[in-house]
Amino acid sequence: MAFLKFIFHGMSGFLDVLGKVGKGLRSDDDFFDRLSHRYTAIIFIVFALVVSTKQYVGDPITCWTPTHFTDAHEDYTNNYCWIKNTYYTAFDERIPEKWEPHEHIGYYQWVPIVLMVQALMFYIPCIVWRLLNGRTGVDMNTIVKSLSGNESLNPDAREGTIRYLVRHLDRYFDHQRDLSKGCFANCKQLISKHCICLFCGRRYGNYLIALYLIIKVIYLANVIGQLFLLNAFLGTNYHIYGFEVIGDLMNKRSWKESGQFPRVTLCDFEIRFLGGVSNIHRHTVQCVLPINLFNEKIYIFIWFWLVFVSAATVFGFLTWLSMLFQRERRHYIRKYLKLMERIESNCDTKMTHAFIEKYLRQDGVFILKLLGRNTNDVVVAEMIDALWEYFTEQKRNIHPGNGTEIDV
Description:
This protein is 64% helix and 6% strand. It is mainly alpha-helical. The strands form two sheets. The protein has a three-stranded antiparallel sheet. A two-stranded antiparallel sheet has the order 2-3. Mean pLDDT is 80; it is low at 402-406. Keywords: Cell membrane, Ion channel, Ion transport, Membrane, Transmembrane, Transmembrane helix, Transport. One of its GO terms (cellular component) is plasma membrane.
């Protein structure tokens, strides 16, 4: 159990360090996304560099050769066995003959490349999100940076920034509403408020939230697929590997050496001497793989980390899924309107309904919530307050003397 505590404390400390490293980078998603495309990608890249250093700077394999072998023979044996792979046989088992089947272990040469590919796979959903999000006209990263930068500490500059962002978002909302005009479009828009899976897009006001949920699903599919990818790569039951380690620790058993990450393996090779085909000598040597000492610890950590990221990604997906429900959207916006004393505690007027469901719509609430995930409640409250003021002013200009009759 002490080892498990060490692992989880280490993860917590590592996240704190990565959080400081990631400060100042793009902020157009939430922590659960950055856990995959930023922190996990960094972890895999670091591990790839560690293994590469051990492979190409140190001695990844050392074979025990016969006494009559010269230094050149030893170098040849080590290089040959590293390139042609080795196979594992337990010490209490008989060494198989040449014609007998034995499974070679060939993954360790590819570990750095596979780790780098995995890092890239964790980053791909982020690339897709930024490419598609950038085409909407709403740059979340710019909005977050504008409201969280040093220039926003000045009250006048902060107020000017908020006014500019409010006009920017208002133009985006207007463009969405222009696309949604028409009788049939209004019917589909009404359905999309309650069932996003039927109709989604800019004209229905739910393009961003639908896109973001799809990206969340891609993140989740990626991290779960990574476990099965490693299982296929290592040729083991890697998706239950961590449970086996936990079982050994809880039963106070030492980690057993197995065929998954063997330190000691066997290697067969043939040497041809001058004098004809019959002068082929077959040798079986015993080799030690120090690199597997690193690989085993790395993949134990990776297993626990992937399980942790999977659970965190599911939790993050569910928190955003709640934004599809009208009740949750109203509760989120009304909370800040009451905080800014724009509405009364138990008030749910036509104006409030129009502001949330017809003006902001699902994408507007999504933008504000994502802003809150990257800043703080004060910033979100000020933005909602400014949007509310801008919205009510527009309605008063459209309907002078009647502030409750809303038709957006």
